[in-house]
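Write out the 3D structure for:
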Amino acid sequence: MHTIRKKPYNDLNSYLREIFGGKVYKITIDSGLTCPNRVNGSGCIYCNERGSGTGLLKKGYNIEAQIRLGIEGLRRKYKKIDAFIAYFQSYTNTYAPLSILKINWDIIRNFPEIQGISIGTRPDCIDHDRLELLNEFAPNYKVFLELGLQSINEEHLKWVGRGHTVKEFENAVSMIKQYPFNIIVHLIFGFPNQDIREITKTALYLSHLGIQGVKIHLLYVAKGSPLQKIYEMGHFKPVDKDIYIEMVYAFLEHLNPEVVIHRLTGDAHRGELIAPLWSADKSGILSEIKTKLKDNESFQGKRFMNLSSKTINSCIHA
């Protein structure tokens, strides 16, 4: 059986060990920014007021305090830590004046134990000036730029109110590839009428673009999100667990084995999950995905490696 870094997929922990030479943990940072969707409307339908973040800034912790809190908490929990990555997660972390971004990001320079910086953002909030500012960190830090695509289906993007197109995503990737950054693409599985064909096409599309990593999220219903009302009215049915696992399985088989898997499923904050309840068992879902790969003697890239460039292009543009 083919294995990648001792697992049937190119997992993040193994990748980080190779890059940093030891165990690495992320410190999640809430810098108090918002996003254009929330300024111009109610935001994406799956997003609530916390924006997938910690909410620590509203509790009185500035960025420096959040970093100290994160480092101290992780050191208490884990015996061996070789480095940290500062992860600016909440909302859109390039959606602010350059002067504010510089102040926010420069704070990590006060912490020698931080060796990487990861910026979560949107395709329509990327430009040359912001990339140049981020590039100032490249000589001394591993730089990850996390880009929310969510779907290659324009109808899905409209349904969740993303406010950007696939073409805008492609343009952003083209700009970012001029810099030595790792491009991490966020995807959502579980859209209405989403099928395996769309999932495999997504894997081939991202492989063709030459991105470095992916994060897969389940479309779950979070308390306080617009999707909660849609769900309660009976207009949205979350995907079944078996179908979700099948989607992840098909995606991995059709994905370039060099792409790093940063996440295979996502879970809501404690007390915020409305549906599906099975998604709360994150470790169980991961175990079932790994078991399915093992039982079928499969691995990341199994199908991808048997396809010619012509066939891949044909699938992408079908």
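The chain has one domain: 12-316.
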